[in-house]
Amino acid sequence: xxxxxxxxxxxxxxxxxxxxxxxxxxxxxxxxxxxxxxxxxxxxxxxxxxxxxxxxxxxxxxxxxxxxxxxxxxxxxxxxxxxxxxxxxxxxxxxxxxxxxxxxxxxxxxxxxxxxxxxxxxxxxxxxxxxxxxxxxxxxxxxxxxxxxxxxxxxxxxxxxxxxxxxxxxxxxxxxxxxxxxxxxxxxxxxxxxxxxxxxxxxxxxxxxxxxxxxxxxxxxxxxxxxxxxxxxxxxxxxxxxxxxxxxxxxxxxxxxx
Length: 258
Prior knowledge:
The protein has helices at 25-38, 52-62, 83-94, 113-125, 139-149, 167-176, 194-203, 207-217, 229-236, 245-252, 254-257; strands at residues 4-6, 12-14, 18-19, 42-44, 70-75, 101-104, 132-135, 155-159, 179-183, 221-222. By secondary structure, the protein is an alpha/beta fold. Strands 3-4-5-6-7-8-9-10 form an eight-stranded parallel beta sheet. β7 (132-135), α5 (139-149) and β8 (155-159) form a beta-alpha-beta unit.
């Protein structure tokens, strides 16, 4: 059973998600099927990825109950003026009545900042999305949304890796009760770095598993992506070992040393 974090509305968000960025149609379908077979119960897509239909079909064909799968999709800023129509299109493609999380993919222009967030909240009130959040937003921008509406995003999905480790940024989100999801954690990491290879060797795992486990130690939700079944499986297999405090500190230090 993968560990989860509770969102403000009470939804349990699985800490290990499967990312689908750059996975084309057939690959997206096969990879999501493989991920669900392995045990992932959190799938991350977006309008931008153009694979929502494949993700939806994979969930349906997997035989896993829809209620058991946490599905995220994202709104492109250029679609902000017709957000509801875009969401309805996403739901049609995903072949589902709701998504578990709808994110604004990155900040809109200043004039649309609050109105777009209000559209997400309206969709939540209508039962089309269970939770609303943002991606690539600064804490200051998040505060603008919260001050204007009285409701803050449940999640901020941002680029995160050992090289980008920023304890102050994590603390800012934590103070607000906002869950951080990290993307591109493996892409932005040199997996041959001696610090990582030494830790991996000691625990009998791959360096990629060490990096993903490090995210979890910091309560950062991960979204590893792969089209290779064995890699999909190892990225999910993070329960069998844990990092020591010293391991975590050594990996944290990669932000300073590169």
